[in-house]
Amino acid sequence: MAEVAEAAQPLLERATADELKHYYYQMLLIRRFEERAGEMYVKAKIGGYCHLNLGEEATIVGLMAALTQDDYIFTNYREHGYILARGVPPGPVMAELFGKETGVSGGRGGSMHLFDRKTNFMGGYAIVGGQVPLAVGAAYALRYQGKPGVVITQMGDGTTNIGAFYESLNLAKIWKCPVLFFIVNNGYGMGTSVEAGSSEPDLWKKGASFRIYGERVDGTDVLAVRDVVRRLRARAEAEGEPAIIDAVSFRFRGHSVIDADRYRDPEMVRRGRELYDPIRKFAALLLEHGVIDDAWLKSIADRVEREVQEAIDFANNSPDPKFEDLYKYMYATPVPNTPTAEDAIHAVKINHGEF
Amino acid sequence: MPVITYRQALNDTLGEELARDPNVLLMGEEIGLFQGSYRVTEGLLAEFGPKRVVDTPIAEEGFVGVAIGAAMLGLRPVVEIMTINFILVAIDQVVNHASKIHYMFGGQVSVPLVIRTPSGGTGQLAATHSQSFENWFAYCPGLKVVAPATPYDAKGLLRAAIRDDDPVIFIESLALYDTKGEVPEDSDYVVPIGVAEVKRKGTDVTVVSYSRMTAVALQVAQRMEQEGISVEVVDLRSLRPLDRPTIIESVKKTNRAVVIAEDWYSYGVTAEIAATIQEEAFDYLDAPVYRVAGLEVPLPYAKELSAASKPNANSLIYAIRQVLRGTKRLR
Ligand SMILES: Cc1ncc(C[n+]2csc(CCOP(=O)(O)OP(=O)(O)O)c2C)c(N)n1
Ligand SMILES: [Mg+2]
Question: Residue A137: which pLDDT band, with cuts at 50, 70 and 90?
Fold first, then answer.
């Protein structure tokens, strides 16, 4: 297996010290961003549903490290880490979670609906499976326009049970779309385990009847994830050959911040967090190879702490979207007989009892 | 009479119906092991086991279709769709199959199916998780659509729905689950499908509403009483069939009507009610019918924008004042 060959290489031939350090930094940034986002949710700074990437940091950073600027990414609603690892600064991401005008979606989308046009981060989607055909469509467009790049559709393990996934596999294959179906297999869709929900729990095999190649990877190993994505990405780009990647990790907490996780054995969860902590594992590896030392770890932890705090401060100090802008993004092409800014102001006054 | 929550009323009823009829079974995502996303099915897996309380994968089109097929052979599935937004994935099965089968096959087979699902938006759930689609189903002949506002009606209508031989869309509301009301013990009452109720008597204006907006209307009616305004609240309870006579009777008495619903204004439930009133009670009206509904945007996430886009007590008070003045609707 190619993966084994990749893993057999010496660490510093797989990545430079700077790259390794950068991966570590990104993983820690996601970790702390998510932990603090959880706190902000409890403080009611964040509303709606809020799903964290805790435990999935290596999956995310490995994936993003393999992509180029030409690539596009579509994700589900558990996507804070992806947009951060794609290079969007934490401030506007946190501001979106706070529902502020300075947020990446202008405060209109919230935690589940992040978007960044500049980095081809094509959105978080909160209807399970919704992003999958969209990504195939984006890949179709790349191919149609003869453009370089591939499209990633990230999705959860539970999402591989919905019809749209299978229709998308078929379409991607018959139309030779350069798309990777990237499954974040954290073992659960809400309270449903992979084994309970999927007749084929080896999710990477789910493309078999579509003649789509699949591979499983340790989603807590940032380099392993990066390497498999690189390899299958290159093939997708060159040959229009879609593939499935099944990246296995461990969900540290409940499904969303408000989920008390009552259906999982607390002892199992405690052990899982210990055994499958991608950050601790990666730190140990880098220390072992002398790439970093304890002082570096301390300085990077301080830097991340500061950056996340600055993101929170930025979000706190940002303005809310204006009422008069309620209808601002309704249509791309202006059209008569649609509500105006004045209509919005009038309606809001009534809603607020100012009459 | 014991006072229980709307959630408890539903939970009790599901348990009682499971115990009463071995053909009743529950199906849905996270209803068993997880105890229900909104805890409506809490405890039922433990009590009735996995044959009767069936956890499904995320496959709405599939399991809704499965439930319809099973119903054709005499099972009585009660399907939970986590929120109404996700039923869009399954709408083909509901509209093209469940609603048609009895009529299209000459009455040879029926579909005794209930689909329970919360509709509407609260708590910044944003554009894809805050929608109201009961009007889409109410539009479709062959379906029955109910939307109880109180624990009493929730229980009575759920019983009626489960015992009914046709597909019933049972609309709940996240914001109602924790509301409380009196529900009799040791009574096998049902609330008939297709019958509205005057929830509060009044003489100056009729407010027509259903589900959460009935709760808002009742609060507003109480407040307005202190201003000397007497509001009659007609709670539709069923959207299809629609109890037009009860609406019309009330409007003929008060001569003024406000219709409130949470869905979007254009083509929404309020339009149907307003049209009914002008057709059947035009000569009795002292003012144009006033409609209160959601602002027509994909619901923004930002807290204040989100809240301002949904109708509330203020919007209703404003509307009532407008019809009492007899003015036309201001834009
Ligand atoms: C069509 C649809 N059905 C149900 C839901 C509710 N829901 C949101 S997330 C989720 C679980 C998804 O699990 P998985 O794909 O494994 O992703 P994870 O949350 O683990 O990242 C469910 C059932 C939804 N959003 N959309
Ligand atoms: Mg999962």
Answer: very high
Domain around B257: 197-325
Whether B328 has a pLDDT exceeding 70, the answer reads: no
Please name the residues between 149 and 188 in chain A that touch chain B, using a CB distance below 8 Å. Answer: 158-159, 161-164
Report the Cα–Cα distance between both ends of chain A, in Å, rounded. Answer: 71
In this structure, how many other beta carbons lie within 10 angstroms of the beta carbon of residue A16? Answer: 11
Share of chain B above pLDDT 90, in %: 97
Same domain assignment for residues B161 and B245 = no
- In this predicted structure, the answer to whether residue B331 has a pLDDT above a threshold of 90 is no
Q: Tens of pLDDT along B21-67?
A: 999 999 999 999 999 999 999 999 999 999 999 999 999 999 999 99
A322 in Cβ contact with A51 (< 8 Å): no
Is residue A326 in some structural domain? no
CATH code of residue B110: 3.40.50.970
What are the chain A neighbours of B309 within 8 Å (beta carbons)?
Answer: 326
Q: Does B188 reside within a domain?
A: no
Supply the ipTM of this predicted assembly.
Answer: 0.96
Judge if B34 and B166 occupy the same domain. Answer: yes
Alpha helices in chain B (DSSP H): 6-20, 44-48, 60-72, 91-92, 101-104, 134-138, 151-163, 212-225, 244-254, 269-281, 303-308, 313-325
Question: What is the number of the ligand 1 atom nearest to the C-alpha of B129?
Answer: 25
Question: How many domains are contained in chain B?
Answer: 2
Residues B151, B44 within the same domain: yes
pLDDT single digits (tens) B145-171:
999 999 999 999 999 999 999 999 999
- Which token pair is A129? 């499976």
B97 in catalytic set? no
> Are A315 and A336 found together in one domain?
no
Single out the catalytic residue among B17, B29, B60, B262: B60
C-beta atoms surrounding A145 within 10 Å: 7
**Same domain, residue pair A243 and A335:** no
Going A330 to A334 to A335 to A338, the CA torsion angle's sign is positive
pTM for the full model?
0.97
Instruction: Establish whether residue A159 lines the binding site of ligand 1, counting it when its CB lies within 6 angstroms of any ligand atom.
Output: yes
Q: Are residues A285 and A348 in the same domain?
A: no
Percent share of chain B, pLDDT over 70: 98
Q: Can you give the residue range of the structural domain that contains A123?
A: 5-321
CATH number of the domain encompassing residue B203: 3.40.50.920
Rounded to whole angstroms, the Cα distance separating B137 from B125 reads 22
> Ligand 1 atom 5: the closest Cα is on which residue?
A128
Looking at the structure, tell me whether residues A14 and A79 fall in a common domain: yes
Question: Is residue B320 over pLDDT 50?
Answer: yes
Q: What is the pLDDT of residue B244?
A: 98
